User: Fold this.
Amino acid sequence: MYEWNFAPVFAESGLLLAGFRNTLILTATALSGGLVVGLLLAFARLSHRRWLRLPADLVIEVFRTTPPLVQLFWFYFGLPIVLSVEMTPFMAAGLTFTIQSGAFFAEIFRAGIVSIEKGQWESAKAIGMGHNQLMRRIILPQAVKRMFPSMMERSIELMKTTTLVATVSYADLLFQANELAQKTFRPLEVYTVVALIYFVSISCVSFFAARLEKRFARTGEFSV
Amino acid sequence: MPDPILRLSGLAKSFDTNTVFEDVDLDVAPGDRIAILGASGSGKSTLLRCVNLLEIPDAGRIELNGDVVGNPEKSGRARYPERELRELRKRVGMVFQQFNLFPHMTVAGNVAEGLVTVLGQSSGPARERALAELDRVGLRDKADTYPSRLSGGQKQRVAIARALAMDPEIMLFDEPTSALDPALVGEVLGVIEQLANEGRTMLLVTHEIGFAYHVANRIAFIAEGGIYEIGTPDEVLKNPRREKTQKFLAEHRRFQF
Assistant:
């Protein structure tokens, strides 16, 4: 019978906390960068200008269809060779996950934008709004509320996918867990604690997301 | 005759191979209330939507208070730069069949939106103006509720207030009561009648022939890709001269009592 012993893990909890911090930093970077990239890609994809639409289509398709691990290797090992630029693990990971989540967010943004009824676009135009005003004031505020559940889903997915960065020696939570497991010879305990950390933090985010969704429903626009 | 507020000349529109209308001429004088009637699919809504360029006409000329919109002369087909579209639409109010209120904004927010975002007014005066317009349509007490809580008739009255807030030189009504329960039609027609009595210039696409008769000073009947018959309500509705107008009115009268 296996004897569980968490004491060695908690003795070195500083190691895991540092990893957790790095995971949060990377997720936040990729998330905020990805939202910006995603919105730009979505606008480019919706544009009637071919020279904007086609490159956006290409980026979105490539990053949605290739494994994130391969993308990470491209940026970390490939890019320095091709462009002879120096890549830190954080830069490579940040870039990979910014563009990758951007590609997914772009599709969510696009679907949200085109889901807004034609009448909304027309009545905004009819009072004299230009394209940017119409997007900012009428379309996006409604679209974001509709997109929010898929956005949350994608963000949670992102946070878990960032565990791949351990392969390029970025000291995220999973990387630190590997170290600790080897140090303490207690892999089961270490990974259980790590899973618990992910479980608790993502559940907290989900909880607040659900409350936010309730707030969105206040205007009653979803029941119309 | 005073200078027209709106002058359409040679207006043409087709979708792919389907010609909606060709060569429409219409002068709208200040204070004119022109009801546009016609069978469904005759292009009355399309004509109305060409006036504020929600549909871009294939040919022809639009003049608003003497200002030519776009560059119709340079080539056969008129070009309408984005800036000119916006300028025109600021000066033309439109009310849609489906109301199209902004569901994420309060009633007052809907009415003030154009003032703030398009005309650049600050929110205080814009709200004052919005409340005044809501007062006019009898909905001031609904200012801070969201559109989802309103009845169809109330929504349409808010939509009218939203258009009026921009001080349009002409109002376009695109079947404003067609999406309403019969019981709610009256309140919307009442507001439109009140605007007519105040001397507002308006074009009204409608199926409410009785209302058109009472409120409009001219009736334009659309058929065969153009204005088929136009005149005073008595001329067109009581003594239509042309066959299709007669048939259309007879069809409409069939079930009246």
In short: DSSP finds nine helices and ten strands in chain B. Chain B touches chain A at residues 52, 54, 82, 85-87, 89-90, 92-94, 96, 98-104, 113-114, 117-118, 146-149, 159, 162-163, 166 (CB under 8 Å). The mean pLDDT of chain B is 92. Residues 182-197 of chain B form the longest helix (16 residues).
